[in-house]
Amino acid sequence: MSGRLLVLDISGSRALLARADGAGGLGEVREVANEAHDAAVYWPAVLAAARELGAGAEAVGVSFGGPVDRAGRVVSVHVPGWAGIDVGAGLAEATGCPVRVENDANCGALGEFHHGGWGELHTLVFMTCSTGIGAGIVSGGQLFRGARGLAGEVGHNTVDPQGALCVCGSIGCLEVQASGTAIARRGGEAGAKAVFDRAAAGDDAARQTLAEVFPDFGRGIAAVQHAYDPDLITIGGGVSLAGRALTEPVATEARHWLMRERRDHLRLESAALGLHSQLHGAAALWRND
User: Fold this and answer.
1) What gap in Å lies between CA 26 and CA 28, rounded to an integer?
2) How many angstroms separate the CA atoms of 123 and 133, rounded?
3) pTM higher than 0.85 for the full model?
4) Residue 282 lies in a domain
5) In which domain, by residue range, is 129 found?
6) How far apart are CA 6 and CA 50, in angstroms?
7) How many domains does one find in the chain?
8) Distance from C-alpha of 59 to C-alpha of 63, rounded to nearest angstrom
9) Which of 173, 208, 246, 259 is most deeply packed, by most CB within 10 A?
10) Helices 204-228 and 180-187, interaxial angle, to 10°?
């Protein structure tokens, strides 16, 4: 695909849309907020924006904030009201273009691998940390999807058997212990950023919250390093904006749980493309066409 792509990154809180070319370059990014917190209102607004911005596009790539199977079907979502909505078919009708839909972490991995400027890599894991936590894996230039297309659900690895109840039904999952939602809950704030900001300002309670979150996050990172042996793990999503205030203490905690001979292998960084990793990856879904 040489150019004229429409790309979308649809999350529970907002959708980002942009035009992209075949090389992964993005035009101006437009946002549609999920102000009503209801897909019945949110989805028509996304379709209207896609219809307008997608005029003249050849194809559409979609990063979706939830599990997506090999057929491009949304399997489950964090936002109520999506049952029965066919994201691919809806966008195809709105734009008149072929559509590819992929999980947001997988798109983030593709974006960082191809456009993050990390140099030569064999294997990269992208972990999105915001409302939830998930991972995308690119190895040998190819996206690893698993048997049903549902690989990378590392947010549902248990990191604390005595931890909180997760929406998945398990206990102490990485997601319920260390996602942006979890950090905010544990810190008594509306968002994770407020906890990091208070900690940076010297607030003892916020610092204690993070001191409890970082070991849980570190155990999750260690499990990812052991499982996939990546050259690089990048963290994207809203929590990644904390930068080294997140990656450095989490890497330190992770090394406590890594095999001794593999501790030096760990490389943990914030996503180079910031909050646009998934948009670049949505364009990369058409990379070889």
Assistant:
1) 7
2) 19
3) yes
4) no
5) 118-271
6) 8
7) 2
8) 14
9) 173
10) 150
